[in-house]
Every structure is written in C-alpha cells, then in structure tokens.
Amino acid sequence: MNHLIGLLLGTENDWPTAFEGLLRRVGPVADANGEEHTFDVERVTIEPFDLRSKPRYDLVIDRLAYWYYHPREWLKKAALMDDLYLLNSPFTFQSMEKHAAYCAMMRLGLHVPNTVLVPYKNPPDHAKYAYTAERYNRSFDLDAVAEHVGYPLFMKPYDGGAWVGVSRIKDSRDLHRAYDESGQRLMHLQKAVDGYDVFARSLSIGAETMVMNFDPDQPMHARYSVSHDFLTPEVGDETVTIGRLVNAFFRWEFNSCETLIKDGVVHPIDYANACPDVAITSLHYYFPWAMKALVKWTVFCTVTGRKPRYDLDTRRYFDVAEREDLSYAEKIAAYRALADDYFETERYADFCAGRLSHFDEVALEWFEGPEFDRLLVDTVRETFPAHEHDHFIAHYRGLLAAWCKDQR
Ligand SMILES: Nc1ncnc2c1ncn2[C@@H]1O[C@H](COP(=O)(O)OP(=O)(O)OP(=O)(O)O)[C@@H](O)[C@H]1O
Ligand SMILES: [Mg+2]
After folding, report:
1. What is the Cα–Cα distance from 377 to 370, expressed in whole angstroms?
2. Can you tell me which atom of ligand 1 is nearest the CA of 190?
3. 3-state DSSP helix/strand/coil percent for the chain, to nearest 5?
4. Whose CA is nearest to atom 26 of ligand 1?
5. pLDDT of 325-378, one tens digit each?
6. Ligand nearest to the CA of 164
7. Which end of the chain offers a freer environment for a tag, N or C, measured as fewer CB atoms within 10 Å?
8. 13 contact partners, CB below 8 Å, separation of at least 6
9. Closest by Cα among 121, 123, 125 to 177
C-alpha cells in the first residue's frame, strides 16, 4: 500500500526538503500482517475543491492554515469527511494560544505564574462596540491589577508568538507605556519568573519529546545549546511530561513548550504553536532528531491506521487534578500515563524498534551525505548576509557533524 503525505507550506524550504529526502528513503515498511507500505510526499497546492472530493493524501503536515483560510477549510473538510490525519488539526486552533493552555494547565495544578487578562486598550473595530462598552465595560485600575500580579511582570499578547508585543515591566511607568502601545491587542499580565536557573524549551512530535537548553537572550542561531544533562532526571522527566500533557490535552501533535526552572520548580510559560520552529538554522544539532521524529511519526500513523481524535477528554485529566490523595508528583505521573496513552508511546517505541530499525542508519547516511550538505549551504545563503556565509556554513557543518559523530 502506498501512502501519500502532503505538506501544506508557507515560505519554508529547509525542513520540507529534509523531510522529503528522508521519507522517500524510509520504505517499504511492513505492518503487523506483513503487508508492505511505501511512502510518497507532495507539497499541497491551493485550488478550488469540491466538498465531496476525496483527498489523495493519508496524512498532512500543516504549516499554513493558521493564517491562510482557504487551505484551513480544505483541512477541516478532509478531516471531517475523509478521516485525513493532520499535524495539527485546525479544529484545535481555537485553543492554539497561550491563554487556553494556561487555563487548562493551571486547573491541572501546574506552576503557571499568576496571570491576568486585561481588556483591549483600543476598541476592536465593530459597529456595536461603542454601545456595548458604554453599557458593560467596567473601568479598572491598571496599577492595581499589576500590583495584584506583582512586579516584575511580563505583558504579552494572550495568543502571541515571536516575541511580538512582549515586554518586561518593572514599574508603573513601563506598565502604562506598554499598555498604551498594545492598541487592539489583547494582553496578559504575567508574574515574571525572575532569576530562573534554566530555560528549557521542548519540542514534541507525536510520541517523542526533545528538551533543549534555551537562551532567549542569544541571537537566533545560538539560542539552543548542545547540552545533555542540564536537568536532574526528575525535573527532566517533569518537563517532558508537561510538554506531552499539554499536547495530549489539546490534541496537538507537533508543538513546542517553554518552561522556566527555578529552585527545582518547573513553570510552564509558553506553548501552543500551530507552527513550531524547526528551521535548521535554529535547531542545528537537534534538526536531524526533529526530522527523524517527524518521518517516524508519519510512518507510524499511516501504517498502523491511527485514527485522528478531535474530541477532548478533558474530564479524565480533571479527575486526576481533583484527587486530594495524590501529591503533585503523583499527579504528574498520572498525567504522563494519560498522555502516553493518547500518543501510544509504548506501541510507537516498539514499532520504531521493530519496523523502522533500518531507519537510523538510512537517516544518518543522508545527514552525512551531499544532498543534506547542499541543503545546509543553500539555507545559510538564504538566511544570512553574504559576508557571514562562510562563517555560518562552517558553524552549522560543525554542529551537524557532531550529531553524526554522536550517533556513530
Ligand atoms: N512569566 C515569565 N517569566 C519570565 N520570563 C518570561 C515570562 N513570560 C515571558 N518571558 C520571557 O519572554 C519571552 C517571550 O515570551 P513568550 O514566550 O510568552 O512569547 P512569544 O511571543 O510566544 O515568544 P516566542 O514565539 O519566541 O516563543 C520568553 O521567551 C521569556 O524569555
Ligand atoms: Mg515563547
């Protein structure tokens, strides 16, 4: 059986080229009955579609529908009518902002910093606004709200990304300036986790999670550092659980999660990325891991016929949260079991060990070979100014060679 995988893309070319190169080399893969599965991949084009037409794809990795609505509606149609498997489903976009995830994770007892949502500074463009606001908007004291949260705090969009509109607020002057500038953007005030020990950013793809040591103050190419034992085993495990939990809870399969760790306490501050960063130039050493995980998860879902599930069974998680006989650590373990159940983590690991045992070597050869090197060089040329090309080509080649060497 042949499976066609679709990539719904905006401007990216680096990881899709790697994904295509790897996926074309992965097959054939035998299923439990000995039937062979092969894979092909195409980039999805945007065109009129009949709501009753059958999609040619078995699974689509979407990087576009969070802002482009025609393909978003195509994804919804294909999910509802044809069981198309999606990473990620647009049905989850309503909660694809920080706000919903903060709420859910607070209710589950995680250490999300105190957070308040304040009304718009400038009114939304709507004919009914003036009347509604006059009747129902209650005036509020921004300083009192900030004092309730406590300084220093962060003001940031409830749905933000890429640091747009994020500011660190130390006093009332900063507060009013930032609020005045927020305009029509809806803002959270969130207590800062100050003087944290580690910023851990984890990327989850299906049943796999990579927790990476992150420094937001560095330029893009140097934010992730290659370090392996920067968390204690317990904190590392908790961080993996939080990333996987929030994904299982909201049915996200390809997402990143940011946590700040201070004195052994893990504070989640950011998740819900419809389109998490997987650029070679930011992930560098971890890029091959991400591409392999994406290929393996794609193969696992299609070969085992994993069915997409859009219904959220939040009650199972809340039942754990409400149990008074469980400690925090026991709740984390229970959430992990629910998340691993949703992602079929054990079955996935067995599948990879049994049916994809050849893939590590195939992928390693590809990352050591000329095709990947060309992609790396082209990506650096497209990303950095000319006078930095030589420097960055050597820099990334070094990091990727280190990954290959570690694998060998
Ligand atoms: N509560 C907090 N305590 C300490 N630092 C914070 C807090 N909230 C945000 N920050 C800092 O501000 C940065 C941006 O905030 P956040 O990640 O929430 O916004 P974002 O727009 O999603 O950014 P990105 O897309 O880069 O992840 C974080 O990476 C972190 O360095
Ligand atoms: Mg962030």
Report:
1. 10
2. 1
3. 50, 20, 35
4. 162
5. 999 999 999 999 999 999 999 999 999 999 999 999 999 999 999 999 999 999
6. 1
7. C
8. 379, 382
9. 121
